Predict the 3D structure of the following.
Amino acid sequence: METVLNFMQPMITRSGRSRRWWRILLAGYLFVAPWLLGFIIFTAGPMIASIVIAFMKWEVISTPEFVGLQNFVELFKDPLFRVSLYNTAFYTFLAVPLQLIVALLTAMLLNTKVRGIALYRTVYYLPSVTPVVASAMLWLWIFNPEFGLANALLERFGLPKQLWLLDPNLAKPAFIIMSLWGVGGTMVIFLAGLQGVPAELYEAASIDGAGALHRFRQITLPMLTPVIFFNLLIGLIDSFQIFSSVFIMTNGGPQNQTLFYVLYLYWNGFKYFQMGYASALAWVLFVIIMLFTLLQFRMSKRWVYYETDIGV
Amino acid sequence: MTAVNQKKTIQFGPEQQTTLVQVRRRRTRRQLLVRAVLYLVLTVIGLIMLLPLLWLISTSLKARGLEFTFPPQWIPDPVVWGNYHEALTILPFGRFFLNTITITLLSTLGSLLSASMVAFGFARIPFPGRRPLFVLLLSTLMLPYVVTLIPSFLLFKYLRWLDTFLPLIVPSFFGGSAFFVFLIRQFYATIPLDLDEAAEMDGAGYFRIWWSILLPLSRPVMATVVIFSFIWNWNDFLGPLIYINSLENFTLALGLAGFRSQHSARWNLLMAASTVVLIPVLVIFFVAQRYFIRGIVTSGLSGR
């Protein structure tokens, strides 16, 4: 098509045009070259390498040896793989919805126009800039069974003390509670979404005599669905890959109850030096996350409402 | 708006008896009540958010042994500032601090240069393949990091970069992060193209347009990138954990984690060290909050 058009044009313009075309091509790729190279070296290359390594037995110092599907076969027989997958799913499917609810409710609170609201916004957001190591130490201390803040709070309400991170049944919920404290990022995105809802819609609704709950269900929620969808997606991807806090706080204990997926992957890769097995684990998680993402996109057509096309 | 409605009800509504003043008073009373409840809820949640941090600072100032009281004491008595000195001398935190600063500064520099250059390419040069490449770039924002974890480690091991800062710095010079490219591109898109065209008339090439026209105009978005880059590098734990081995190359995050494994029962010192790691981030956040929030809002990413 392009060649035909070029052919039909007079020679001078054609050659002039094509020089400009080449200049643009060259300049464009020169400018994006850093990213393109980085993408190939640090993302695409490693991803492809990771598939290849997943079919190998490779203990870093040993020479890699092709073993076919062995890693994947082992994986499905590995009880710790199943435990880690279960723990991660348990955490993700409880933490993400709770995070979304808490973030949306706090965002709505912060969307009110009262004096001093900026200060409240800062305070609510503060926990999410805390370095993960510092917040891990802090929450380790809060969940301390003898002297921790969590038990002091329970005691205040006349409830029995808990072992928290040492209790196999409470360890995962403890991590969920901790994740709710750092919900600020999601909250700010919701806040931006709320501020983007046209005020005319609310005005029209209150003229029609709609109550607050009605307005929330008929206007706020539908207008926010793209933001909810986005936060849901990012929340799932993040939660599936929870690592640093667990590594520091419990390292999988008690009784493997906080052995989350990436922690198990880390053990295999950097403790047992099973590069092949760890890569197989990585790819299984990658496929799971991709499937969930695709599923979300598929389902989103039913509940996400886009007022206009959002252009990139 | 609602006030207008109210007046209408007064004029035409059934309650002809109530005067305007009475209604106003009732309204303000109700509004006051709503406002009071709102402030109460806001404050209670605000306290929940703040208490852990106050508890961190409180514990960090307690005398040895006094952190073990139940129910916990909020105001330390005596206030032991010496905890900070002790915590920071048990391990070479000065060294960790220098390491972290070095990594953070170089990595931020790399992100600024390369991300703004790449963003210019995507925003201003209509080269063939631009659209699919940009979609590719955006899709990497959602890529789970685990999938490149092992091979990246092997790559850096092959390059003999393990236990150096290079794995934590060099990737920043290759486009920084897709997040930064996106952020800057969105900003460039708001700068009128006329500027470029005028410069082109004067014979400026793309490089000149980028370097002397767009870059000087993009200070706000650069500030956002600096702040995100600073906080990410400062807070990063997994990267240093995997690539750094020897104590002298530790970052603050690694050092703090190492501190815990050595002195797990010294909570006051542990909290003091945590506070020290936390404070620079808080300062940056307070100083540059505006840019920070703008970054999140533009991109929809919070950079966890």
Observations:
- Residues 77-303 of chain A form a domain with the MetI-like fold fold (CATH 1.10.3720.10).
- The beta strands of chain A are 56-57, 65-66.
